[in-house]
Design goal:
15 strands; four-stranded parallel sheet; four-stranded antiparallel sheet; binds zinc ion; Isoleucyl-tRNA Synthetase, Domain 1; binds adenosine monophosphate; single chain; Rossmann fold; alpha/beta; elongated; 16 helices
Length: 464
């Protein structure tokens, strides 16, 4: 059992984490908007959720996890103006909104799998399949006087919620003063946000690809309401932990809080955790800036997705990480070396001292950089396999699996080359031995020489 302290965005403090329900932690992670392939910046959010989940499970509690699938309502402006990301993508690709959403949702599941992110029993509710639940909350907000109508939809009146902006201590006044000229002059306050937006078809215009009937007119839900509705449905309110990237603090998460707390009079979640960005040359990785890389881009360059995981964990989740190809390539080489070394470790019992330190690092606001330094140290000191496996329960680098895989299904052809080379080495024919090594490496294998023996393994890229 380890004590877990987490930096709570809600209070700005590191606090001891105590679950609401004994032995079951309920966690909601803001999920992907499925209009394009997730980029590796997006995946940082889910690696944070995974490390958190594994740490809690390690400490002895079950985790009930929900990641929403945003398949409607997220507009290109990330605010209340502009096209719906899904509709825009559907038009661009000449497909239905449904096909677009399902296609990129599946791409997201593939990335989760590649990154060894636990998700077998994770619930992935889709916004479009919870319209009824969203409308129910909007009705309550309207009845309680928190909502008002404009010509383009139903809006939340943020001036009616005295705690508006409390997450991350957002200064609404400053935001208001600095706000760009509002395109929607019917809003009562610049920070007010759409709960429901009308489709053009509601006023005789074109039908949207996705639209529904509602008490206010045909339309679609605002982006934030799905999270209030689906977290409540599957996790109840309040639940334990809510996570996302830091870009969600000022608007999306404060709006979720406003809706949920005003509708039901209790907090939405007790702990809020936010990951910093992955940047490229110092700028946020984002589709709009055109500086994105995906897990498939890494794979195309022969970089194993778990090398990306290793690289990412070398930074704390609250520090920005600047992506470079050299950095992930370096991580790939390091991971490959560690997997080989893992194979040579002893079968002794867990080294208790190492594991105690490991637990205290993870328990201290998920300090993965320190945990990784300890992992490297454990390898250097040739601690046992079981010690590494214990750490891997949380780090999720999959040492046991990968070290098995690199020895499986070695082709007869390469085995023959290895035998030939072993003979050349015995005969001290170094030139031939070097040539054969080169040939073997070209086939995607690596050799480790041990006295007059050699060990043949696949390289890490060949497991992609
Ligand atoms: P989206 O699919 O746009 O809703 O974003 C999914 C998640 O990725 C959210 O939690 C975002 O805050 C997060 N995110 C977006 N860009 C980055 C980035 N460059 N680095 C880290 N997290 C990001
Ligand atoms: Zn959300």
């Amino acid at each position: 059992m380890i004590e877990i302290k987490l930096n709570n965005t809600l209070t700005g403090k590191k606090e001891v984490f105590l679950p609401i329900h004994k032995n079951e932690v309920r966690m909601y992670n803001c999920g992907p908007t499925v209009y394009f392939f997730p980029h590796i910046g997006n995946m940082r959010s889910y690696i944070l959720a995974d490390i958190l989940r594994r740490t809690i499970e390690y400490s002895g509690s079950k985790v009930k996890q929900v990641i929403n699938i945003t398949d409607v309502g997220h507009l290109v402006s990330d605010g209340d103006e502009g096209e719906d990301k899904i509709e825009k993508s559907a038009q661009k690709e000449g497909k239905t909104a449904f096909d677009i959403a399902r296609f990129y949702e599946n791409a997201y599941y593939q990335d989760l799998k590649d990154l060894n992110i636990k998700s077998d029993d994770t619930k992935f509710p889709r916004a479009t399949e919870h319209i009824k639940e969203q409308i129910e909350i909007l009705k309550i907000l309207e009845e309680k006087g928190f909502a008002y109508k404009t010509s383009d939809g139903l809006y939340f009146d943020t001036s009616k919620f005295k705690d508006y902006g409390k997450l991350g201590n957002i200064n609404i006044k400053e935001q208001k003063e600095g706000a760009r000229i509002e395109t929607n002059i019917e809003k009562r306050n610049p920070s007010d946000f759409a709960l429901w937006k009308y489709s053009p078809s509601a006023s005789g215009g074109e039908k949207r690809l996705q639209e529904w009937e509602s008490p206010w007119g045909v339309g679609f839900p605002g982006w934030h309401i799905e999270c209030s509705a689906m977290s409540r449905k599957y996790l109840d309110q309040p639940f334990d932990i809510h996570t996302g990237g830091i870009d969600h603090i000022p608007v999306h998460h404060n709006n979720e809080i406003a809706q949920s707390e005003c509708a039901f009079g209790v907090p939405l979640a007790n702990f809020w955790l936010h990951n910093e960005f992955i940047t490229v040359e110092g700028e946020k990785m984002s589709k709009s800036l055109g500086n994105i890389f995906t897990i498939s881009d890494l794979k195309k360059r022969q970089i194993h997705p778990l090398a990306f995981r290793l690289w990412l964990l070398s930074g704390h989740y609250r520090s920005p990480m600047n992506f470079t190809w050299d950095a992930v390539l370096g991580a790939h080489k390091t991971l490959e070396k560690l997997i080989f070394e893992f194979d040579n470790l002893s079968k002794e019992d867990i080294d208790k001292e190492t594991i105690e330190k490991f637990e205290s690092f993870l328990g201290d606001d998920l300090d993965t950089p320190k945990a990784l330094a300890l992992l490297h140290n454990a390898f250097n000191l040739k601690k046992s396999k079981k010690t590494i496996q214990e750490m891997d329960k949380i780090l999720g680098l999959n040492f046991s699996f990968l070290s098995k895989k690199i020895k499986e299904n070695i082709s007869d052809e390469v085995m023959e080359l290895k035998n030939e080379r072993d003979t050349a080495r015995k005969e001290k024919n170094w030139q031939k031995s070097d040539e054969l090594r080169e040939e073997i490496e070209k086939e995607g294998y690596l050799l480790e020489d041990k006295n007059d023996q050699s060990i043949l393994r696949k390289n890490l890229s060949s497991l992609i």
